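Reopening this ticket.

The earlier resolution said the output was attached, but the attachment link was broken on my side. Pasting everything inline this time so it's all in one place.
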Amino acid sequence: MGKIIKDGFAFMEYANSGLIRKIDDIPELKNKLITLSELKTHIEMSKYGLLLAENILNVSGIERSAAIEECFYINTKWQNREVKFQDALEVAGMINSLAREEKNLIKAKVLRAMGQIAATPHVKWHALVSSEYAIVIINLMYPKNFDKVKEERELQIELMKNV
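Inline output:
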């Protein structure tokens, strides 16, 4: 069972519910990331999501499309209280539609991660789900390479510490 984070929500249960299939991960580092996230505000989690998005694009080699740019734009606008979370959900829905249509598996997972980041203004835990997608991307690019998984999780932890 996952640790109850807030309002009866168990992030570990959500992340392991089948939304994201089984991934090769390092549970101790994943749990450390979750624990750090518990101390973060909604806006800090949004900022973390944007930092993570930059990392995902760098690691995957996927370029910023107009749709991905919308993810960055909507989060920044929401952080500045210039848009409502409903606007972010529209962007997330659009990005997730593109992910469903995408034939390149890595690009599809990058789009899924961006959709989660775009949805972070709605619920801050979407940023953690994007962290899961980042590990899925690492798994696809470097199968069974736990050194790469460790590198990614450690980077996520540093990003989380620094927001």
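Reporter confirms the inline version is readable. Strands lie at 4-6, 9-10. The chain has one domain: 27-161.
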